[in-house]
Structure prediction request, 185 residues.
Amino acid sequence: MKPIRLLAMLSLSAITVGIVATAMADDDRSYSGSWGTRALPGVAPVDFPLYQDECGSCHMAYQPGLLPAPSWEKLMSGLDDHFGENAELPENERRVLLNYLLNNAAGRSNYRVSNKLMRNIRGTPIRITELPYFVHEHREIPSRLVTGNPKVRSLSYCDSCHTQANMGSYNEHQINIPGYGRYDD
Ligand code: HEC
Ligand code: HEC
Prediction:
């Protein structure tokens, strides 16, 4: 092979190595494979007052990016028996809220936590707390701090521990479990 060509090939592969290395270094933090663009941190905050009012009275208004679209569709079609509660809405309102949820569901926006929650989902779970990534992240918390803790009650009450949950931020440095304090594992 002529020396010039070899040199050209070498520098080309050096560029390739550089690109791959950059992508890998950024991996989990900024890139999500299929999107190919920078993911934003956390999940998109709720920006719809009607949703905040109607779905934020018994528990925090869960960000749409915490569940994929088929899950929201299923959940919103069974509001008359919503985890043992009646959360029925007038049909026109239900439709408006369902549209909001579907448009902003996990898998339809590029946020880091949403992308992670989408991993390995089987079937159509209607609980965030049953998604594999969620289960994995919370599996080591002793139950006395959760169900045995009157200030938490269940993992469904995200904002009892995640101090910035209402802003869509679930950063591990912003966790404060009532009666326990900052959680460092
Ligand atoms: C009347 C009270 C009430 C209203 C109103 C209500 N919910 Fe709920 N919701 C509950 C209860 C109770 C649970 C179960 C909590 C538990 O298991 O500790 C729940 C659970 C959920 C969960 C699953 C949380 C988990 O465990 O992962 C989602 C998602 C949810 N609600 C969405 C909604 C949406 C969307 C609306 C508005 C259309 C809504 N909720 C309105 C009472 C309510
Ligand atoms: C009892 C307190 C508690 C409740 C309630 C709780 N979490 Fe967590 N969560 C934690 C702790 C502690 C960790 C960190 C685990 C670790 O670092 O080992 C965590 C980790 C996470 C992570 C991983 C952080 C990341 O950047 O990927 C996410 C996402 C998350 N929680 C979302 C939620 C959501 C959504 C809810 C409500 C449906 C919720 N959590 C309810 C305590 C809680």
Notes: The first strand starts at residue 176 and ends at 177. Residues 66, 113, 116, 128-129, 137-138, 140-141, 145-146, 152, 155-158, 160-162, 170-172, 175, 177, 183, 185 surround heme C (ligand 2) (CB under 6 Å). The chain is about 35% helix and 0% strand. The helical segments are 3-30, 49-55, 69-76, 91-103, 112-117, 132-138.
